Amino acid sequence: MAFSRWPRRLAIALLCFGLTCKAEQRIETGPYDIYYTAFPSMLVPAETAQQHKITRSPNRILLNIAVRNDETPTQVGITGTSLNLLNQSQILNFTEIKEQSAIYYLAEVINHEQDTLRFSITIEFPTDHPSYELTFQRQYY
Questions:
Q1: What are the beta bridge partners of residue 106?
Q2: Which of 24, 82, 108, 138 has the CA that lies 20 to 30 A from 88?
Q3: What is the DSSP letter of 130?
Q4: What's the pLDDT at 140?
Q5: Which residues are registered as beta bridge partners of 66?
Q6: Tens of pLDDT along 98-124?
Q7: What is the pLDDT of residue 141?
Q8: 131, 125 Cβ separation under 8 angstroms
């Protein structure tokens, strides 16, 4: 069935784009590894974007976050905001994507022309481990 291949294609596309953009990062906190990347939504193939309701646009950035515990995909609570150079804030609305071997969270950010975006993301783990504040910034041209 072609539909079941879409999540796998999206995961492969996100991983490849994250690596080619050199935007993928990894943070360790206790037993958890947090992987995150932010890249232009135009890099997502049109069919994949349509399937997952991702807006492809030159002014959209896509965030991808995944958490693993000892190589096992982990479901987490995740919230966040982005802030541009004018201190204009956008709330990040994350969508959870589940696959057999992965769980990841996607959010879209509107970006106008050249700007530096600062991201602040709170990750709540399913255990007693304290929440993690992930902060990073990216410059877009």
A1: 64, 95
A2: 24
A3: P
A4: 75
A5: 35, 104
A6: 988 899 999 999 887 778 899 999 999
A7: 66
A8: yes
Which residue is associated with the tokens 């950010």? 109
pLDDT value at residue 10: 55
Cα 41 from Cα 71, distance rounded (Å): 27
Q: In the chain, what is the greatest distance between 2 CA atoms, to the nearest angstrom? A: 47
DSSP string, the chain: -GGGHHHHHHHHHHHHHHHHTT--EEEEETTEEEEEEEEEGGGS-HHHHHHTTPPP-TTEEEEEEEEEETTEE---EEEEEEE-TT--EEEE--EEEE-SS-EEEEEEEE--SSEEEEEEEEEE-SSSSPPEEEEEEEEE-
CATH class of 2-140: mainly beta
Give yes or no for residue 7 having a pLDDT over 70: no
Token pair, residue 55, equals 């807006």
Of residues 14 and 24, more confidently modeled: 24
Question: Roughly how many angstroms between the first and final C-alpha of the chain, as a whole number?
Answer: 39
